[in-house]
Amino acid sequence: MNLGFGLLLFAMVPFLLDRPVLLVAVGGHIVAVAVAVVSLAAMATLRVREASPEGSLGRDATERNR
């Protein structure tokens, strides 16, 4: 849903080129949506890595070899 909102805002940018205040406001929202999407993707990736048995086995084997 956030990604769709960001794409919709991005599609509005050409119509706002003559209105700098609105262009900055919409640009800020686009950046905020991009940050939210990337942050959520990073958190989901970390949770998958923590939950996977392969990731924990590799970490334990490395610690045992020290």
UniProtKB/TrEMBL annotation:
Keywords annotated in UniProt: Membrane, Transmembrane, Transmembrane helix
UniProt-recorded name of the protein: Uncharacterized protein
Q: What stretches pass through the bilayer?
A: 20-42
What is the species listed in this Swiss-Prot or TrEMBL entry? Halobellus salinus
InterPro entries per the UniProt record, alphabetical = DUF7530
Keyword check for Transmembrane, yes or no. Answer: yes
The cross-references to Pfam families, in alphabetical order and at most eight, read: DUF7530
This protein's superkingdom? Archaea
